[in-house]
Model the fold of this input.
Amino acid sequence: MHNKSVAELSRELESGKISSVELTREYLGRLKKEDEQLNSFISITEDQALADAHAADEQRAAGKATPWTGVPFAHKDIFCTNGVATTCGSKMLANFVPPYDATVTENFRKAGAVCLGKTNMDEFAMGSSTESSHFGATTNPWGLSKGEKRVPGGSSGGSAAAVAARLVPAATATDTGGSIRQPAALCGVTGLKPTYGRVSRYGMIAFASSLDQGGAMARSAEDAALMLNVMAGFDPKDSTSIDREVPDYTATLDEPLKGLRIGLPKEYFADNLSAAMEEQVRGAIRDYEKLGATVKDVSLPHANLAIAAYYVIAPAEASANLSRFDGARYGYRCEDPKDLMDMYTRTRAEGFGAEVKRRILVGTYALSAGYFDAYYLKAQKVRRLIQQDFIDAFREVDVLMSPTTPSPAFIQGEKSNDPVTMYLEDVFTVAINLAGIPAMSVPAGFVDGLPVGLQIIGDYFSEARLLNAAHQFQQVTDWHQREPQ
Amino acid sequence: MQWDIVIGLEIHVQLATRTKIFSGSSTAYGAEPNTQANAVDLAMPGTLPVPNEQAFRYAVMFGLAVNAEIERRSVFERKNYFYPDLPKGYQTTQLERPIVGPGYVDLDLANGETKRVRIHHAHLEEDAGKSLHEDFHGMTGIDLNRAGTPLIEVVTEPDMTNAEEAVAFARKLHGIVTSLGICDGDMSQGSMRFDVNISLKPKGSDTLGTRTETKNLNSFRFMEQAIAHEVERQMDILEDGGTIVQETRLYNGDRDESRSMRTKEEANDYRYFPCPDLLPVEIDDAFIDEARNSLPELPDARKARFMEQYGLNDYDAGLLASDSKLAAFFEAAADRGKDAKLASNWVQGEFSARLNAEEKSVADSPISGAQLGDLVVRIADNTISSAGAKKVFEALWSGENDNVDAIIDAKGLKQVSDTGELEKMVDEVLASMPDQVAQYQQESDPKKQKKMLGGFMGPLMKASKGQGNPKLFNEILVKKLGG
Done:
């Protein structure tokens, strides 16, 4: 059963071949056994899952099922879950149990899905390797057979590793600078970051508000479409969410790709990309040509500024977003503070990890008097230019394609003491967040036995087209079916 | 040396919306601590602000009332600082693009001149919570009921030159926001709070001196005192050859003392930047037109109407029109009868004095405008004397009885105006005071005669048990004594 997709499981449940309780038990058993070496989960909510599975079976029996009723999945631990610990990978929130659901959580609950637990992540979603979690690093299931402990990417590394290892068929994830696509690529799964505002951010613990976007981590584009059907939509509780009709993302998956115009940004096929990686990505693009797509080179002239702009804007917003963790109302508070200042400084010194502190400091600096114009304001201007690059490109082509990452999964610890090298992991992904457009990563080959991701980038609200392009590719390739041993 | 005083004001006006500016929880005052703060107000992780349309409508109404430009696109910014009663670690406010642009208010000064005070801008923002330093044994309690209450902060240009002008402006603004119904104006509950910026410069000089800011003054009286105090403090320093330190000061009205809260060097770097959780707010013409059409009568228009409709003089009309509740009270009183001037005197005299003495607002008054109006009617038609009227007022105020005529009856305050009866009393009193009558009749100076009449009034009032109509007594006396 654990090898089945969400769509398949949904059909099995519908046919009555298996109950949600049975399915949930099977997944929980596998999860408890296999996750010891992966550490892809922060918490497993067995009792709640079984209760939800039971309720789902009753729903099905009553004929009130959605495609998700009774299907197991997991939430990234950044989404608030009513009554269930939500840590965001931090000591700061290790004891935090929200009294409310994130809108995404609520949507899955309403759809009848069964959440098995909360997946591991970089602390407050800051990182590209899921090594900054207070609950320990997650290990990529690829490479384990060779005895290598590789990173699953980050910050949604827990979700990616869990889906890759078939511990859950799908999981929610979030992407601020590539945190869905990069781990999807490194773990060989399908990840979708929707248009900014397409999925509500309510109850999704904020890292950088203008960049954060919830999305899907799944085995296939079809499953990602099923997830987006549940996640997308306007939310009156999030004034940055967009009031626009949500299509049925599964309805257009089978449309032929003939005539699809693909653009290859030349800046994303430059010297920082290894020959082996490039070969795999070019191979995937040839598959698209066989499906009837046409390919042309395009330019994103400000691509080289994206990392710099991102690492000003994201920390600036984070420095304010994380101010609320002050020990006053919830979460961690230091022992016996001697006065207010002591409470603040020790709570934050003890509660936050190194990467979070680094970014708070960078952000505070970038916003401070005398530096605001030179950094924050300049970065926002660069952001406009990057946005305009994409708008110009989409006048010529329907989608852009590129590698998702410059290299496959690296060994744990290899980059964790060198933040700048780590930041370069996101070189092909951050510009998409700055522009607010949607993008996916789909498995597209292997280098040294490790998965390689193809990034498909679309214009605003073109999720259906991206999913269609990914699905058609997955009809003629089997990269997404490969399993780590 | 002679000094020019330069005063600018920053005024926090709490908007009377039912719910908070970015959350659905109630803004009602006085509830148990933290019962009106939801997950958004507590800044729980993942929660997001959703703007309250009514707050924008109120801000636009305010802008229109002070002749200001309304910005079509306003932006919220985060003002970052740590304080336990600031749950998010930043205040959501407006800096670069506030909703209300430059405007002005005209003041009618006591000397009959009109003074224009320019408004630099007014912006929308959220209030913080409250820190409670008592009852927690060396700890601090936090009440977040007020956190997220919508405010507009009105910032003036430094156009005022003395405490009287500053207070007149503050009162005028109070009248405007209460007339608009966008603020309850209750300063004791912090609904309006004033920060005063003051600097001194040598008379006639064009260069502004160093200013100080005195924060959080919550009554007109404290504001006036604080200005006088600060002007004197700065003058003493300057005349001793010292320099003024740019700083924020706190004024203690009970002791008439002030102390430094922080100097410029200690001020926070607030690291303002546009709030990424809130999109820029676009305001269209329809919204502005709707707000314009909903504007009620404002103090200036009301003053003109009071002069016209009730024949009040400039001063009385201005005073009564400045406060919408007082104005409504006066109108209710005046509308009972014809003597609006007398009603005005009673509203400004006995009634206002009593409110002040008991530190009550018009809204807390135990008597209604209509009741006071009934009382005025009975004074005007000579049913009661002014001394009797005070007794009636007292009975109304204490809640002894709510009907003016019933009180007059019960207390036997009706004046005797039957001339036959009064003449009899005069005859009796004159007969008992032959020496005084002779003195009066021998006096040739009419002024002195007039004074001597008073000597008869006491015994007459005594004889009539206080119920004789003094005016009629006077007429009869003059006639009888004149023989």
